[in-house]
Structures are given as C-alpha cells and as structure tokens.
Amino acid sequence: MASKTQALATFMLLSSVLTFSWSRAEGGGGIAVYWGQDSREGDLSVACDTGKYAIVLLAFLNTFGAGRTPAWNFAGHCDNGALKKCTELESEIKYCQGKGIKVLLSIGGAKDYSNYSLSSAEDAKSVANYLYSNFLSGQWGPLGSVTLDGIDFDIEVTEDHWDDLARELDYFRQTTGTYFYLSAAPQCPIPVYYLGKAIATKLFDYVFVQFYNNPDCAYDAIIMPLRACFIACYVCTGSSSLSIRLLLFATVFLYQK
C-alpha cells in the first residue's frame, strides 16, 4: 500500500452499492482498516473500541521471500526488524477478536519501504509454511499465542508467484480443518498490476480495491459509485465472469496527525 499523507486516505466502495452472493465471508458489509503504520494512531484495542471496523489488518510484514529473514514494520507499536517479536499485541488481538472483529496480517506494502518478493513456487511454499506456522496455526509465534483470522496481500512489486502463495495457503485451509481468510488489495488501474494472477485463482474472500494514489481511477466526487463498482467488478473477475464472490467493503488507512 502506497505511502499516505492524509489524515485518512480512504477508498470507498460500500456493500450497499453493489452486493454479490457470498459464501465464505459472512456478513453484509462494514469497514476494513489498516492499522500499524503510525505510533500516534493509538493501540489496536483503541481502533477496535471505535465500533467502526469489521476487519483490522495489521500492517505490514514487509520483508520476506527469496531467502530473506521475515521482518515487519509496525511503526512505534513494537520493535521492528528481523526476528523481532511483538507479543505485546497478543492481548489486544484477542480483545478485538472477542468483539467479533476479524484481525488479519497484511504482507507487502509500499515497495519504497519494503523488501519482499517470491523467487519460485517452492519459495511461495516456504513463505506459506512460515505464515501458517507463525500466525494461523495457534502455535506460539511472533505475536504470542494467537490465531489470526487470515492473510492480506498488499503487493506492489512483481506479479510472480503470488498465485502460488494463495494456493499454498489454501492448501492449509483444505487440509487442517481450520478456515482462515485471504484478502487482496489491488490498485484500481486496469489491467490489474501485481495481483491479477493471484486474484484469478478465486481463492480470496475479500478484495479491497485501492481507489487512491492513482489519479486515473481515484475515488472522488467526479467518479460516481457506479463507475467504482465497474472497476471493482473488472478487477475481481477479470471481466470474464462473476464466479468469484466478493464482499465490497469501505476501507480506510488509519493515520492520525
């Protein structure tokens, strides 16, 4: 996700504008928020206590793949870098989940502030194993003893092997008996950069289209909701079918001055 300079950089696409049949991701709408990129935004529990959000995405695990030691950047909320733990978030994650809010880990982020890629299908398998073992399996991990609700793909470098990563994560869903969510945050220009092949797998439960920082399709008073819906449909279906089912969310990036 690109760097934000506004207090709240928002891209609006409400589920009330256009609704599809939804099988895996239950619920009729809501707001998803990216949390973790500004120490002044307050604790995770503060975001969950607002009553505004249905999904909170922890941003970002921004270093991984191609032999790199995984690392994240949660601004000043905890220590950043390789092999760092952030177990102080354990109680806050469980608090949010106890309120019925889904908490996902977002991987990737703006390329200028990150260092990630996948070098092969085998590399994708290795990253999937790391993500499942450390964040989705219930085992003790970098965030403590928590089971996150899923993984968000906020990819802004190369399109190679993100579809393989989605398939490998789905393999764990199919073989472990534990369902977790996959979401993607493609930018709004067409054709879809970076995540097109991954979304085409139709394994994603949520797709959060980035209607900002892209002048040709940024959401504003000129771009009417119907046009935004058309872009979202094209992004999520490749314009060929509506067999992928999605829940259209209003999504914000939480940032406070």
UniProtKB/TrEMBL annotation:
PROSITE patterns: GH18_1 (PS01095), GH18_2 (PS51910)
An example Gene Ontology CC term for this record: extracellular region
SUPFAM superfamilies from the UniProt entry: (Trans)glycosidases (SSF51445)
Entry keywords, A to Z: Glycosidase, Hydrolase, Signal
EC main group: hydrolase
UniProt signal peptide: 1-27
Pfam families: Glyco_hydro_18 (PF00704)
Membrane-spanning ranges: none
Its EC number(s): 3.2.1.14
Any one GO molecular-function label of the UniProt entry: endochitinase activity
GO biological process, one term: carbohydrate metabolic process
PANTHER family: ENDOCHITINASE (PTHR45708), III ACIDIC ENDOCHITINASE, PUTATIVE-RELATED (PTHR45708:SF31)
Entry's family note: Belongs to the glycosyl hydrolase 18 family.
Protein name, as recorded: chitinase
Organism per entry: Cajanus cajan (Pigeon pea)
